[in-house]
Amino acid sequence: EAGVTQFPSHSVIEKGQTVTLRCDPISGHDNLYWYRRVMGKEIKFLLHFVKESKQDESGMPNNRFLAERTGGTYSTLKVQPAELEDSGVYFCASSQEIPGNSGNTIYFGEGSWLTVV
Amino acid sequence: SQKIEQNSEALNIQEGKTATLTCNYTNYSPAYLQWYRQDPGRGPVFLLLIRENEKEKRKERLKVTFDTTLKQSLFHITASQPADSATYLCALPPGGSYIPTFGRGTSLIVHP
Known about the structure:
The complex is a heterodimer of chains A (117) and B (112).
Chain A: E1 5-7, E2 10-13, E3 19-24, E4 31-37, E5 44-50, E6 53-56, E7 65-68, E8 75-79, E9 88-95, E10 107-108, E11 112-116
Parallel strand pairs in A: 2-11
Antiparallel strand pairs in A: 1-3, 3-8, 4-5, 4-9, 5-6, 7-8, 9-10, 9-11
Chain B: E1 4-6, E2 11-14, E3 19-25, E4 32-38, E5 45-51, E6 56-59, E7 62-67, E8 72-77, E9 86-92, E10 101-102, E11 106-111
Parallel strand pairs in B: 2-11
Antiparallel strand pairs in B: 1-3, 3-8, 4-5, 4-9, 6-7, 7-8, 9-10, 9-11
């Protein structure tokens, strides 16, 4: 069974440009999460989808970030325009159930490493 | 708001010994607490979940304890091996949420 896949694995863009990160969750997982880790900090929650609906987007830093999950399958996270402080690694994760319930494992992808110069 | 504290200093131990990592949290007790392993350049890998009404959970060489009075979880790896070297992350949901929030992690280095 394929795990959570993310694309691109690495991206270097200039300040002001746009980047779109893609995440394919494990097939059948309704719950999809985006997290990010900036240098020297902990992994921070960005948002949570249940199927195509945004369940919790309290962690989104500002309106330069837009996440979508049309059709409830893969998700994209667009950063427009990118700023230097957006550099870091963006993790996508998925789960069958929400954490704490039975089937409580969250599976993470390997991350998309973004460098804004 | 909930704060998660993990020792930022790396833990160095000798192969065969038991590694013990600590996760402390402030404020209210979470409904559950998770431990993850992360290798350099990789995503976190879920290891164990322990619920607030459980005191201990085991999985092979791993053992997790949860003390809601001390607001602390301990993560033990018995008979440690160099392959256990990684960063171990503690995660728990903040109040009013079910989504795990992560600590900064503690690096474990097991020497042969």
